[in-house]
Design a protein that fits this description.
single chain, 4 helices, 11 strands, alpha+beta, about 220 residues, 8-stranded mixed beta barrel
Length: about 220
């Protein structure tokens, strides 16, 4: 916690840019900026930053290693850290433009890293906080809407990332909806979309909790 809090304090700036107190339903608009130049000077494996409205504790740099083992127990500074880092699959492109980008994080007992993803097994929580965001090193802010939550086996086809054509990707999406513990009634996902799969362990070595998000907005910061 101390390690990542220090990173957030040093490299992240959040500013309220529009505040309207006339209605309790108005939500403050916050400009979220990451000093990626400084982060990249520390470690060139940084490819983005992930954050949630809630659980707000999920706010971390995203790494990508040469394999899916390196950042399991390493920090931003490549030092040993039992909590490891949040990282994308080494086979994915680092620009989040694949049909399906898989992101991994530990389910820490203190709730850090992806330890709070378990809250999305509750349908009401999903409905209340349906969005998460990824800021990229090239200045984009991508908004994702959660469309499904699922418990899967550790070797599940859920972790497929590449598809021969749109028909195969659509079949993958159809499979996602099957046996999901939650599916959103507010968004429809097709093979024309891009998705992110967030994955964490459950305490059972044979299963994983996965949260699926679809791109619903993408802007360049400052535009």
């Amino acid at each position: 916690d101390e390690e990542y809090e220090k990173i957030k304090q040093e490299f992240v700036t959040e500013k309220v840019i529009d505040e309207n107190e006339s209605s309790a339903e108005e939500v403050e608009k916050v400009a979220f900026e990451v000093d990626f130049d400084s982060l990249l000077a520390i470690n060139s494996d940084v490819i983005g930053w992930i954050r949630f409205d809630e659980p707000a504790t999920i706010s971390y740099p995203i790494m990508q290693g040469a394999d899916n083992d390196y950042y399991l127990k390493r920090s931003l500074e490549k030092k040993y850290l039992s909590a490891g880092s949040i990282f994308i699959d080494y086979q994915n492109d680092d620009d989040f433009k694949d049909d399906n980008t898989v992101i991994y994080g530990h389910n820490m007992k203190n709730g850090s890293m992806f330890g709070q993803l378990k809250k999305f097994k509750n349908a009401e929580f999903c409905k209340s906080y349906p969005y998460f965001y990824i800021n990229t090193v090239d200045g984009r802010e991508i908004t994702y809407q959660i469309f499904a939550v699922k418990l899967v086996g550790d070797t599940s086809s859920t972790y497929d990332k590449f598809y021969s054509d749109k028909e195969e990707f659509q079949q993958y999406l159809n499979d996602v909806y099957k046996s999901a513990v939650y599916t959103s009634p507010d968004v429809t996902v097709s093979s024309d979309d891009r998705i992110v799969t967030l994955s964490t362990c459950t305490g059972d070595e044979s299963t994983r909790l996965v949260v699926f998000g679809v791109v619903v907005n993408e802007v360049m910061i400052g535009e």
